[in-house]
Structures are given as C-alpha cells and as structure tokens.
Amino acid sequence: MEQLTMEQFDELLTNAVKKAMEGMTAVDRKFGVFPTDEDGDQQGLTKEERAVKFLKSVWFGKAEDALKLSQRSLTEGTDTAGGYLVPEEFQAEVLRLIPEYGIARKVCRVVPMTRDKQNWPKAGSTGVTAYWVNEAAAITESSPTFGQVQLDSKKLAGLAALSNELVADANVDVLNYLYQLFAEQFAYQEDYQWLRGTGSPITGVIGSSGVNTVTMGAGETNFSDISIDDLVDLIAAIPASAEQGAAFFFHKKVLAEIRKLKDTNGQPVFQSPAGNTPGTIYGYPYYTTDVMPGTSAADTAFIVFGSGRWTLFGDRKQITVDISRDATIGSTNLYAQDMQALRMIERIDIEIIEASAYAILKTAAA
Length: 366
Fold this sequence. Notes:
Mean pLDDT: 80
CATH class of the largest domain: Alpha Beta
Strand content: 15-25%
Low-confidence stretches: 23-43, 66-74, 78-93
Number of strands: 15
C-alpha cells in the first residue's frame, strides 16, 4: 500500500468530514435545524475544521488536544465552570482517561461496621509455648495476650452544583458522569490512605510504626537504581506466616524499571502475563497505582510488599447519593437559581492489623 504524506492525509480526512457534514446538514434541515460554518469553538474554528482537528488528535494520540476540543461548561453560559461535552459531531460520551483505583477494597479485609466505633480482637505480642517435659513433671503455663484494633469511621464527601438547563440539554447523562467521577475520587482517597496515609485522617502502611523497611544503598536515590537484591530483601523482610496473598504495590513507572532487571543468567525478574496468567515478580503478583510515588526522590518509600489481609477496611456507610434542588451551597441558592446539586458521602476506616506483615522499599537518604 502506498504511504500517504501528511498533506494527502489532511486532504483525505477533510474531504471525508465534508461528506459527513453534508449528510448531517441534510438531516438538520429535515428537522428544522440549520447549523452554519460559523458555529465554531472559542478558537474560531468552523465545525468542519474542529471535526478534522479532533479526529487527527485522536488518530495520533494527542489526548490533550482532543480534550481541549471536547470541553464545554457545567453551566451552559459559563466557559470557566468546567467542560463536559465532546464536539456535537460525535457520539455523546465524555472522552477521558479512566483511572484504575479501588485496590484497597479488592485486597483488604472489608468488614461491615454496625456503629461509628467498632473493636476487633487481634493476637497480642505473647502467644503460647509448648514444652518437652518429663513424666509427672509440672507443665509451665502459657499466658497469651490479646490486643484490639478499633475502627473509627471517617466521613468522605463530595458535592457539585449544576444548572437545570445543563442537565436537560446535555447530550450525555451529566449526573451519571459526575457520579462516576466522585466514585473514582473516593476510590483514589481510599487507596491513598491505605498505602500512604499519615494519620490525617488514616495511618496507612508506609506511615505505620513497626513496618519493615528496606533501604537502598548509599547514593541510590533514584527509582532506576533498584536492584534484584532490593526485591529479594523486600520479600525476605516479612515473616513467612504473613506471606500468603502477598503482592507488590507501586507506580507504573516503577514497573518499567523492574521490567529491565535480569538475573545472572540473563533471565528477567518480571514474568510477563501469559494467557489467563497475570504477570508476576518472583512469583508474586503486583498492582500498579497512581497513589504511589512516580517521581524519584531521596528517602522515599516507593514500593509496598505484603498482603491486604493484614488490613481491616471498615465500611460504616456505603456510598450514598443525594440530589437537592432547594439547598443553599455557599452563596448559591439552588431553588432561586434553578440549579441542583449532587452529594456523595461514605463513612469508612482503614486500620493496619499487623504492621510487621508489610515491608516497604525506600531510596537512600543521600
């Protein structure tokens, strides 16, 4: 097949869009709607020019340009209120990168909370001991101790107001779209607090006292300095009894560095997925998440290793959604301004049962 030049590609794409526009205009005339070529966006582009530019952005993977061409506002007359629609020439859906969060709910022990505070027992620092004894000799008594983990629910909330005109006139389900955005943000906050929370409001794995820490060698302050020995030491840092279900948790950029590691025989540490078998690192699964650090820095914990079964995820109140049309939000009177607001709330807590069941890998301090 003959390779097209950029000029030929532009001409071919432009002609195709013109043909499509002619068909759209014919349909519009049938129903009494007459779009004009002057109906361009804020950049002064005509509908045809905007369509061509949008398609080229998608074709060549220029997501930022495509999103700029797709944006309108959350109130029809106010551009600065936030964009939500794709160009009218295309199907009614919002183009965006859908993040992958929700790891905490997948791997941790999710338990229902019947009240605001709930205690769960855990083994203490002292267990039982068995002894070899002689016939008729006294047996030494064991005195096991017990502790408890207290789940204390915290509230996570989101609120957005939008005009009724927007809800009525949009060619996408705006309320459902906002629901998805809030749900994703809630999942992000859950994952962040589980892995990196510092106590405001939740203390996560990295911030927990007693977590096993493996520190890279002096001068190794970049993620690219990671070695096979670091991963081996990380795996060895947790007790064998805590190993069941253990996995690695890190940013996707860290995965790129791990993919490059090879043993003395030239075999990669990372085992690529095969069929229905997911990829592994030394036989352990991994999860990539944007809540973990993606930019190298000194003295930074950037890999967590362990099993989510050593974390309690208390769910006091699952996500609830309410829509109000008569509340006042700040200075916005929804009833007077013909608006409505979407509110989402959940109440959860996350508590590390046993910090020593986890290990973290840190870059060197200097």
